[in-house]
Amino acid sequence: MRVVVDLTRCQGYGQCVFLAPDVFTMHGQEALMYDTDPDDAQREHVLRAAAACPVQALHVDRMATQHRTVEPELRHPTSDVDGEFKRNGHIVIVGASLAGGRAAGVLRRDGFKGKVTLIGDEKHQPYDRPPLSKQVLTGWVDAEHTMLPHLREIEVEWLAGTPATALDIGAKQVTLADGRQIGFDKVLIATGARARPWPKEAEAALDGVYVLRTLDEADRMRRRLAAGVNRVLIIGAGFTGSEVASVCRGLGLEVTVVEAGPAPLVGALGKVIGDIAAGMQRDAGVDLRCGVTVTELVGDEQGRLTGARLSDGGTVEADMAVVALGAVRNVEWLEGSGLAAGPWGVATDAGCRAVDINGLVTDDIFVAGDVARFPHPVYHYQFMSLEHWGNAVAQAEIAAHNMLSDQAHRWPHLSLPVFWSNQFDTNIKSVGVTSIADEVVIAQGSVEERRFVAVYGYKGRITAAVTFDQAMWLDFYRDLIERAAPFPPDYRMVGRPDEMRPVPAEVPQRMAPAAGATVVVTGHDPAERRVSLVRQQP
After folding, report:
1. Are 10 and 155 in contact (CB under 8 A)?
2. First-residue to last-residue Cα distance in the chain
3. Which of 148, 185, 251, 486 has the most other CB atoms within 10 Å of its CB?
4. Is 32 within 8 Å of 12 (Cβ atoms)?
């Protein structure tokens, strides 16, 4: 039995914990944890829990879609060419990820009868990444038990452990590492991202240094933790680093977190909320050091990690280090393809169609998930890349629908970003984009109790909301964002303070989209003018 909870929808009511306590548990007020592959003896309890979930966030063996057509299959009129493609066409999906697997299911649901080829560089079927830094590291769930429930049983050509190395747009071919060339009529790029490694190769190779992104990486970390660790050093206090710190403290380990910024989570939520997260970590016994970087990882003569040297002159003893410095988008295989692909990801339009290097939209190449960079109308059409579970699901469904639709029936990807994190027995959830905000206000609840809603605004308009153990309010604020409601919010709500005082959000300036790459424009006549990508050397 495969179970997954769509935590973008979960509001912490806890009915599942009451009805199936051997499968679901709540840490703190709303931090839900669950067994992703419970014994079949629990099936009746789990099914009751799924039926009782007020927001229908619990899926057993099958996953529901976020975007639904009126009919099970697309019913709008199609041309003879479109009809032939749906019957006999060939769609290649590069990336056997959450996005890739979801897209394959939607293609079949919407009536595609042709051939679907799913290419993955890992040997595993699509699996759920959020449990890796939570349930898997604690040893509660085996890494191989995080496989995602299928949308439906789908017929695909499955090419596992065979990474793609090139894309030829003109010839409509994907080249694999083993030299094979796979032709396509349409292709979906869903290659995602990988963990950013420690930049010094010799130090990264020390026994005891880890990154966390994939199922295999999580399994190796779990085995190391189970074998016995004295002190853990975590480099970076973003969401992954903070979640790993929470797990390690829960296991009773000594933990040092080194963060270059002024507070944990500051890159995503700003310093105001980051300071609250810093208090959570220190109250849990984490040795948190902000405004400091690791300058060197140190090992013994046997190549085992012993500690680190810091930029402030200090040192840390550790026999395990987790490098949590963000992600690198998997675009190297697209070099020379002619697509606008670089450190920022692969540029797309709002309908998930890839943009080429000249800024022109392609017809048969689509992109979804962490690797996509797309314009969002709600945020002034700024291009953004989102490493969120919910975005990968929603974007994959839009891409699959649009691959089967003509121009008049395509959908735009307008879902607001939603993400969550369970750490230190607290459920943190967010809707919208915090990074463009200039102010933030505590609109409900208590910071002292760490149960509150923080609302972000930009030039008098609500742009995002973050909840600490107050997830039930997230849909309300999602609606306010979509309606361009004024900031600060002026509603009589439970827990509203007597006086709301917006303060600067202190969100750090984001990396310029073109950092690490630029373009050169050549030619004079419109028919000749072209762009070439110039990559800056690190």
Report:
1. no
2. 47
3. 148
4. yes
Beta carbons within 8 Å of 273's beta carbon, 6+ residues apart? 265, 440, 454, 466
Mean pLDDT is lowest, of 38-42, 61-65, 301-305, 314-318, for 61-65
Q: Which residues contact 476 (CB under 8 A, 6 or more apart)?
A: none
> Which amino acid appears at position 154 of this protein?
I
414 Cβ neighbours under 8 A, 6+ residues apart: 350, 376, 377, 378
List of residues 6+ apart from 467 with CB closer than 8 A: 427, 428, 429, 430, 452, 453, 454, 473, 474
CA distance 473 to 471: 5
Residues 6 or more apart whose Cβ sits within 8 Å of residue 180: 162
Burial class of residue 312 (count of CB atoms within 10 Å of its CB; 0-12, 13-18, 19+): exposed
CA angle centred on 264, ends 472 and 195, rounded to 5°: 95
Structure confidence at residue 73 as a pLDDT band (50, 70, 90): very low
Single out the residue of 282, 238, 239, 273 nearest to residue 259, CA to CA. 238
Q: What does the pLDDT look like over 513-530, one tens digit per residue?
A: 444 555 676 666 666 666
Element (H, E) at 240: helix 239-250
Helix axes 271-283, 239-250, angle to 10 degrees: 10
| Type and span of the H or E element at 26 | strand 24-27
Tokens 């006086």 -> residue: 499
What does the DSSP 8-state code read for residue 270? -
Distance CA(349)–CA(363), nearest Å, equals 11
pLDDT at 74: 46
Among 44, 46, 48, 52, smallest CA distance to 34 is for 46
State the burial class of residue 280 (Cβ atoms within 10 Å of its Cβ: 0-12, 13-18, 19+): buried
Judged on CB neighbours under 10 Å (0-12, 13-18, 19+), 464 is buried
324, 283 contact by CB (below 8 A): no
Give the integer Cα–Cα distance in Å for 402 and 45. 38
pTM of the model as a whole:
0.89
Half-sphere exposure of 389 (CA within 13 A, CB side): 19
**Cis peptide preceding 488, ω within 30 of 0:** yes
Q: What is the pLDDT of residue 129?
A: 85
For residue 356, the 8-state DSSP code is B
